[in-house]
Specification:
Elements lengths: L1 H12 L5 E3 L2 E6 L4 E6 L7 H10 L9 E5 L7 E4 L8 H10 L5 E5 L8 H6 L4 H24 L1 H8 L4
Parallel strand pairs: 4-6
Antiparallel strand pairs: 1-2, 2-3, 5-6
Length: 164
C-alpha cells in the first residue's frame, strides 16, 4: 500500500525522474518540497534505505512520513500518528531502529482477509471487491499526505483518522 500511495503521489504531481541511491528508489518534487522514497530492500530492512536518503538530504525524522499497510486495521481504514511504536510491523521496527519513534506514519488497513498466512495477505492480490474500493482509499491517503505537507500532522490526523 505504501508504494501504491507513493506512486499515486508521483503520478498526481507529475514526478517522472526517479533515481537510485543504494537500496532506495527516490524522486524529488521541489514544488511540494518533498522526496518520495521507495525502499528496494526487504521490508523488514526499510530503515537503512530511508536513512541513506534522509541523511543525504538532511531530513529530520519528524519530517519523514512513512506510509505502510497494516494487517490489524480493517481494510480501508486509515490511521495517522505523529509518532509511536511499531505495532508489530517489521518495516516500522526497522525504521524505529534507525530514527527512534519520533516520525509520523500513515497506516492503511488491509485487514487479515481470508489468507491464513500474513505473508500471503501482504504479498498477495486484493479481492475483486477490495480492488474496486482501492482508488478511493488511495485518494484519501494521498489527501492525508498532502495535508501533512501543507498543514502539519495534527491537521492530517484530523482529516485521515475521521470515520468515512
Amino acid at each position: 500500500m505504501g508504494f501504491i500511495v507513493v506512486d499515486e503521489l508521483a503520478r498526481k504531481w507529475g514526478v517522472r525522474d526517479w533515481h537510485k541511491k543504494g537500496e532506495a528508489r527516490y524522486a524529488l518534487d521541489r514544488s511540494h518540497d518533498a522526496i518520495l522514497v521507495e525502499p528496494q530492500s526487504y521490508m523488514n530492512l526499510s530503515g537503512r534505505p530511508v536513512q541513506s536518503i534522509a541523511t543525504f538530504y538532511k531530513v529530520p525524522p519528524q519530517r519523514i512520513l512513512v506510509v505502510v499497510d497494516d494487517l490489524d486495521l480493517p481494510f480501508g481504514t486509515l490511521r495517522m500518528r505523529a509518532d509511536g511504536s511499531s505495532g508489530g510491523h517489521n518495516g516500522l521496527k526497522s525504521l524505529i531502529d534507525v530514527f527512534g519513534q519520533g516520525f509520523p506514519r500513515l497506516r492503511i488497513g488491509i485487514g487479515r482477509g481470508h489468507d491464513p498466512d500474513a505473508i500471503d495477505r501482504v504479498l498477495g492480490n486484493f479481492s475483486e471487491t477490495e480492488s474496486k474500493e482501492l482508488p478511493s482509499i488511495v485518494e484519501r491517503a494521498v489527501e492525508g499526505v498532502e495535508t501533512w505537507l501543507t498543514a502539519g500532522v495534527t491537521a492530517a490526523m484530523n482529516r485521515v483518522n475521521a470515520k468515512v
